[in-house]
What does this fold into?
Amino acid sequence: MSSRRVLRWFRRTAISVAVCLLVRTVWLAGEREWDRAEGVKDLAAAVDEADAAEPDWRWDQLNQSVRRPKPVPNGADLIPEIKRHLPTDWHRPFGTPEFDTQTEGTPANHLYPPEALAVVRRQLTLVPAAVNDAEHFRDVPNGRRDLPLTADYVSTLLTDTQYTREVALLLRWHVVALLHRGDGSRTADAVLASLNVARSLGDEPTLISQLVRIACRRIATRNLERLLASGKSVADLSQLQVAWAAEAEEPLLLFGVRGERAGMHVLFDNMTAGVVDLSQIAECKPMAATDFLGRYGWWLYRGRLPGDHACTLRYFNQAVAAAKQPIHLQTAAIASIPLPPDDKYHILSRNLLPAIDKVSDAHVRSTAEMRCAVVALACERHRLASGRWPVSLADIPVNLLAAVPLDPFDGQPLRYRVVDDGVVVYSIGPNRTDDGGHLSPTDNFRDPNVDLGFRLWSPDQRGLPPLASPASPAEVAPPPRATP
It folds into this structure.
């Protein structure tokens, strides 16, 4: 082949490649613009849906319309003040295997062993100012903080929110120390304070915030169970019952998904405006290549942003609607919401959507425990007034319990059982099977064949000495036997 023919072949090939690249570029540019235009229309429809359901759903509007604590003080403001008195590792001894062996599985009606109590007392003596300030929560039942929202939303810091759990842990061990001292009245105040620590989070608009609130509620409810199991006299159980009843009905999942919807809307708006790119989002950094192909890919995907934004917003619109349903219907409603497709058009939504189903599960469990505590307090008040346990929950006068709360797992009234050494109020729990009020000795809802609930011991079974040695689960909490 002559050099002239080779040159012509190369020229034709180069022209063909150039034409193909040009056609492909024009095609992709047209496709990008088409995707953008269709996405903009889809996004407008999703925004209209949100506006129709909740006109104040955007971040600024949502935070302006929140329930501010009335009257002051604001419980959220107490958290950083208390944390200032807590060394970083003050609670480390409570997490050691030795301490866990001494305390885990100890029934609420038994005192902790002397070795564990010595650790509790030693650590509390290191933080007297924090303990004193934490007790002030007894009179502060509300709270709310304004979050300093970042442009990418997902990196918004929740520092004080996380400190809330530390304050709840502080009060957990403060309650233990008070009970060993025999101070029932002050312990009741500390138990109420521990619930108010959870309430200090208010309707803070993130799912993480509400998960922290759920964790703090659990600590408070275990504090309450230990108080009632101690045999110490409490002057006014009605105040605790009112507080637990109010907290039990707080729509924590709704608070969280509303906030996540508003925050993700801010993120997508800022990405569309070029204020935020993939490299600023930890979950997306592997996709944020800085070479030519990476920049080209991001340019192409920006045309798909409105459509992905619409998909994300519509997902949250459905999640908000699900979170407004009665709680026993929420789990199924959340599960029925289709996830964004796993394709090139929904990369951000697939990577950034939170696990709402797991938060929903935690909220249902927490509500079950809180409602059981409310009924248990009514049972205890009935016993104090009449000298006996209620035969059934219908036996409780309406002035002590206006109505039996529903089990958030199946929508039926909570269950009740009289056992040899007391009573148990319970929900059927995550397995949705009535296991006869058999509660996990280690407080583990994942244990098979257990329910969720609240145990009350008979007066002669309260405030018992520490167990002689770490007991097996079967020795600690045998399945309750019905009283003939």
